[in-house]
Fold:
Amino acid sequence: MSLDNNWFTEQASPTDCAFSLHIKQKLHEEETPFQKIAIYETTEFGNLMTLDELIMLTDRDNFIYHEMMSHPVLFMHPNPLKIVIIGGGDCGTLHEVLKHTTIEKVIEVEIDERVTRLSEQYFPSLCESNTDPRAEFCFQDGIEWMAKAQENSVDVIIVDSTDPLGPGEGLFTVDFYHNCWRVLTAEGLLVQQSESPLLHLPLLQSIHETMRQAGFKTTRSLQFPQCVYPSGWWTATIAGNGDLTQFREEAAHNKSFKTRYYNPEIQKASFALPNFLIEGLPD
Amino acid sequence: MSLDNNWFTEQASPTDCAFSLHIKQKLHEEETPFQKIAIYETTEFGNLMTLDELIMLTDRDNFIYHEMMSHPVLFMHPNPLKIVIIGGGDCGTLHEVLKHTTIEKVIEVEIDERVTRLSEQYFPSLCESNTDPRAEFCFQDGIEWMAKAQENSVDVIIVDSTDPLGPGEGLFTVDFYHNCWRVLTAEGLLVQQSESPLLHLPLLQSIHETMRQAGFKTTRSLQFPQCVYPSGWWTATIAGNGDLTQFREEAAHNKSFKTRYYNPEIQKASFALPNFLIEGLPD
Structure:
């Protein structure tokens, strides 16, 4: 069968598979100085945001990505107080991070303020914490922000970026990771979304190598399903200077907030990697 | 963007998402008494088999499904000697099961012999064990086979079926599961592919309920990524009469065969379910 014009299709180049969502209507479209943003209403996945024709999130399944980009790394760090999010302008990651009541400050650094303004309008549930007094918004280039940030001043950096093409490209470089390493405290942790294990293994390998070249002593990937991203299977990669098997499991069991995907068993399970990944990634 | 005619698209009705693969050429197509079988050469996923326009498998990612339909249940059963596979005519599951050298006999029951003959031609690596003397092929209806099978005679039944529509429909019923229960030994285990947790939760719930109505005391789902199936995320559900947390972990660690996805940590991780599934499924 072929799909009529009422579908949004993202082709995952160069892997030659594609994912499509049935669209009820286009709600908004604009060209910003950084990218083309579009918002659609789908028939079964709620609202959809695309950036430069790539699917960023839908109402239906964004909870998995946002929970897995925030809770595992936050329950790994022994005492995360100050967090920086690079990208993530839809504020879904920010919303999850702020569920941790022990966190004192979260700086949300998004290059394109329009992503956040449109998320407030079309994904209001992700933006419920935007007025939390612990949240600070900096609408500027995350690379510049990190280059100028004070050393040894942040506990966890979450790089909730687009793919390593277009505006997100500089967020996968030695220079950027080295600045993250410099800005993090000795116990600090960096987490970066790191694409599909099935489709983008060379890129995932390169992320590990680049993080280590930048100064991090240890790196470790975790994996989770993500229906609307290519292959439906995604990774995040954590970098630090010590043991990345640490886990405040009791705190995770006793967490005071609700999650739909995450739980402590999921955290442990997410680090169990298939053989082809164990063989393909550094120890 | 829209896709040209060189793509095979499967629309996951009624959930209104679709997955497509770029096609180099159609290698074969035929109507059997049971279904329409087509084989394509894709640009990046190797060969593709479809049944009634639904994607069954590709060279690139079938290893995950076949390993996860076989090794977890076989390493749960204390001593699996006699196995029955219902469906699975492509022989990928059979190939994985026969890697267990302690297994004495595997009966492969496929309603449509043409699926197997075409798999031998277009997916030869999946059929490498078809001449194993422990393998017996019965090209007949799995429902009938099970209704006539001797009680208390099989250790593990693997239902490697199509969706609960068309020829596979009867493999999701109380009658069929009751016959499985009757045919299994007291320690016997049934595993059934059980669709997407994100898209088909009511169906997954119904599979648990139906298995329990049929006589099984305990049921448990495991999950794994499967790129070419709707949502890229899939489950298998195991039914038995006792503790479904049993695991011959040492045997799994010492297994004499290679796997690309499966390992003992993956087995444990596959049973860690997200909160929305824990809440949605019976204890």
Notes: Chain B has nine helices and twelve strands. Chain B touches chain A through 52 residues (CB under 8 Å). Chain B has two domains: 7-58, 62-280. The mean pLDDT of chain B is 96.
